[in-house]
Amino acid sequence: MKYLGLLSIILLAGCQSTPTFCKKEPDSDLCNQKTYQYGTDQALKEFETKKSNKAFALGQTSDGWEFYGYSEGYSSTHKAKKEALAQCQKRVDKHGTDGKCELIR
Question: What is the pTM of this model?
Fold first, then answer.
């Protein structure tokens, strides 16, 4: 019984979330806020004010369009990430061009 607390800590330490695209590829233009279009920049500023279980996905297409999706307030970060990616990809698909959304926050 005395090791039960230690086991809990070890198990929780293994529950790190997967890194976002910008943590893996920090030099990408997708991660450089200075390259974002005005609408994306404003959405990112609004997103930063949100409180919990949030995620922001961004996609840029070969023809210069930029799309985003974000979510907040989900019961888990995993669900928030899934929703942000889905919102972003839906916008890319509606545009009818190639492009892939990545989690950047």
Answer: 0.75
Q: Cβ distance 68 to 56 under 8 Å?
A: yes
Q: How far apart are CA 84 and CA 97, in angstroms?
A: 19
Reported as type and span, the H/E element at residue 86 is: helix 77-95
Name the helix (H) or strand (E) containing 68.
strand 66-71
Beta partners for residue 59, in sequence order: 67, 101
Give whole-number Cα distances, 47 to 22, 57, 64, 69, 104, in Å.
16, 11, 23, 10, 12
Residue recorded with tokens 């210069």: 64
CA distances from 99 to 1, 4, 27 (A): 52, 47, 19
The continuous run of DSSP H or E covering 39 comes out as helix 38-48
Mind listing the pLDDT tens digit for each residue in 16-69?
Answer: 456 787 887 777 777 778 888 899 999 989 988 998 999 999 998 888 899 999
Q: What are phi and psi of 70, to 5 degrees?
A: -145, 160
